Each structure stands twice: as structure tokens, then as C-alpha cells.
Amino acid sequence: MTQNEQQTISHPTLIAVFSQPTPAALWALRGELLVAGLSPETAVFPILTQFYQFLASLRSSLDAHQYSKFASLLDIGAVGGVALESLLQKGSSSDFWQRLLAGGLSEGLMVMASRQYIKAFQAEMTAVYDTNAWFLYDAFWQLATTMQPQTPPQERRDLLDHLFAPIHNPNLDNSLKAALLGRLYQILLFAHLEKALSEVKSP
After folding, report:
1. How many independent structural domains does the chain possess?
2. Which of 67, 116, 155, 193 could pair with 62 as two cysteines, CB 3.0-4.6 Å apart?
3. Which of 34-38, 86-90, 115-119, 176-180 reaches the highest mean pLDDT?
4. What is the pLDDT of residue 147?
5. pLDDT tens-digit profile of 83-134?
6. What is the domain extent for residue 10?
């Protein structure tokens, strides 16, 4: 990657995606990745598309204040600062996404527990949650298979079933389901960005 290409992956865009993601931030990131030289066939682009559609669906069902409040639940805080530095450095460790998964989810749950939940999420959004959970489950299975091929399939399934169980809990507040899905998209996106950008930066 040349110096000019590297500058196209801007800190403000990455910060937006990993702090208060919006469809506009994902749109900007897609353009910057294409300019940076990533092939449209790269695995990160279907994830961007699904994440964009998920956020667009939520935004259409909430007013501006409600959406802003929801997006604030996805701020990965200090974990995000380390993540952004890793994304912009060549040779990031292959297990970083695992640390982000553990830290990002735990921090997100604490943030959600300390804030007032959004009550405007509608029951009609259940289909959106289920569809996105289906996509994310497959994507995390593929990612885990690549990153941890030594894990027995049944153990991998048990871990993912536990991770996605809240989405299928009828008693869980819909805002928490949406926030969990958003956090999973962020982690999945980070894992693929880390890999894709390291390949682009290679001589």
C-alpha cells in the first residue's frame, strides 16, 4: 500500500464505525476500502452490506434521538482505541480478534447494564433480529473455523449457541438484542478488516 492509499483509511471513519456506527459511516468505510485497493470480492464487503442493512432497518424504526442513544451502546471504548491502532499497523497478531471478542462483549454488556434501555424498539423488528442472527452465526462459524481449526465442531457449536442465545430469548428487551447484534457485527467486521488491511499493506 502506498502512503496515499494508507491515508484513505481514515481514523474518523473507523472511530465512527467502532463507537457510534451509522449507515453513513459504513458507506464511507466501503468507499475508503475500495480506494485503498481491496477487491470487491473481499470477504469484508458482504459483512459491510449486512451491517449497513441492519443499521438502516433500525434507523427507519427510530427517531434521530432514539437511534443516537442506541448507537452509543455500541461504543467499544478503550478496546476500540487499541483496535484502531492495530488496524493501521502491519503485522497485527492473529489472535487479536479473540481478545477483542472477549473485551468488546464484556465491556458492551457493562455499558448496556448501566444505561437506560430504549423502549421504542417494535415487536415487528423480530424478523430483522432473526435474519441478522442467522447471517452472523454462519459468519462466526466460518471465522472460528479459520482462526481455531483445532476446536471440535460440537464445542464450537456450543460456544456459538451460548453466544446467540439472548437473541432467541423472548423475555430479553429488544434494545439489548439489537445492541448485541450490533456488537457482533463490529467484532466480525474488525476481524475481517484486520486481515484484509494486512494483506493490502503487504509488499
Report:
1. 1
2. 67
3. 34-38
4. 79
5. 445 444 443 444 544 554 555 555 555 455 455 455 556 666 788 889 999 9
6. 3-201
Q: Give the span between the Cα atoms of 189 and 184, in whole angstroms.
A: 8
Tens-digit pLDDT profile for residues 3-17: 444 445 677 888 888
pLDDT at residue number 169: 85
- Give me 50's grid cell: 449486512
CB distance 176 to 166 below 8 Å: yes
> Which residues lie closer than 8 Å to 19 by C-beta, 6 or more apart?
74, 75, 76, 80
Query: Which residue, among 46, 99, 45, 50, has the nearest Cα to 76 in the 3D structure?
Result: 99
Number of other residues whose CB lies within 10 A of the CB of residue 91: 9
Enter the pTM of the model.
0.79
Burial 119-143 (b: 16+ CB within 10 A, else e): eebeeebeebbeebbebbbebbeeb
Print the SS3 string covering the chain.
Answer: CCHHHHHCCCHHHHHHHHHCCCHHHHHHHHHHHHHCCCCCCCCHHHHHHHHHHHHHHHHHHCCHHHHHHHHHCCCCHHHHHHHHHHHCCCCCCCCHHHHHHHHHHHHHHHHHHHCCCCCCCCHHHHHHHHHHHHHHHHHHHHHHHHHCCCCCHHHHHHHHHHHHHHHHCCCCCHHHHHHHHHHHHHHHHHHHHHHHHHHHHCC
